[in-house]
Amino acid sequence: MPFVQVQAIEGVFTEEQKREVIARITDVMVSIEGESLRGVTWVNFIEIDSGCWGIGGQPLTTEAVKAMQNGG
Amino acid sequence: MPFVQVQAIEGVFTEEQKREVIARITDVMVSIEGESLRGVTWVNFIEIDSGCWGIGGQPLTTEAVKAMQNGG
Amino acid sequence: MPFVQVQAIEGVFTEEQKREVIARITDVMVSIEGESLRGVTWVNFIEIDSGCWGIGGQPLTTEAVKAMQNGG
Amino acid sequence: MPFVQVQAIEGVFTEEQKREVIARITDVMVSIEGESLRGVTWVNFIEIDSGCWGIGGQPLTTEAVKAMQNGG
Amino acid sequence: MPFVQVQAIEGVFTEEQKREVIARITDVMVSIEGESLRGVTWVNFIEIDSGCWGIGGQPLTTEAVKAMQNGG
Amino acid sequence: MPFVQVQAIEGVFTEEQKREVIARITDVMVSIEGESLRGVTWVNFIEIDSGCWGIGGQPLTTEAVKAMQNGG
User: Fold this and answer.
1) Of the N and C termini of chain E, which has fewer Cβ atoms inside 10 Å?
2) Which residues of chain D lie closer than 8 angstroms to A37, CB-CB?
3) What is the DSSP letter of E4?
């Protein structure tokens, strides 16, 4: 406690970035709740299939997200 | 907001059907909450491994669901 | 199977609207997966506290959502 | 109702063990809620990628969990 | 790891029963994964508002579940 | 996308701290995925009833967590 779950479309975050997300979200939580809760602060990361995430009903693909990242 | 998550056993819905689920659930939400919230109405779709979903303790497989669909 | 979970900020949907969401999302699923799966098609609705949902880091309140609904 | 979701790192539980988890968690629920709810007691099992689960910010791998299991 | 989440309609389980569910699900997991993982075996329990859980599109209330429990 | 959900025992985080968690987790995600995805980076925060979260089968209460925070 706490438990944090991250959901993102597959392939948008590299393995290294996922580790960074886990480490830095943990640091955010611990900086607020206190270092003594670090051992019971969990973060996990789930990938959703490309095209299986709709925004406004439009399916979002890995490529579409990457285009957004590149200012597309 | 809102965020809708669909969970189903793998292989029961085709890719096209998953897109249809996402689009039509979004339309249901928007028809109730208002078109102005379409852009912040998210739906995603997660597949669970065949046999990793129990009803009454009995593991349900993709084949078993298809048999149910065909009136089995 | 399937299981659908709806998350929305508290107070945006009336009790009646929540029932409508549950009924109509079920109808969407059943129209695609087949009537024979109606009995194993579940939808539940969870409300999140006002201000406990961030978009782009900005906390969204019930009032803010209602303003959006009214074209604010 | 009830719906129980189990999340574990991939490869820690064998297919047989996952079935056993589903069956025995269902039995626990039914022994408390009553046999009449067995048919509406669902349990599913989701696997998280190795390294995509942090405890205290440290990413946990399948191998690390197995080492823990073996007293490592 | 593992993390188990139980969802049930409000008021169906007493506080004592919820504790029993948490303890006994933990025991099931530990008996399969090994006692060494007990400290990292988490179970939490979430209650869903009465009427906010649909089975086949029909909203299930606390009273309806209790009637089912009593063979109604 | 991405969607981040934080679960914590009720009363451990103040309203202000919950806002801070939402803002700072968003900043972590955006610093990795890119500022262009800020508008589609969501974080929400769910509170679990005191005593409804077990670690190793032991129910954790709000008071117990506060004691841990104070080095108890």
Assistant:
1) C
2) none
3) E
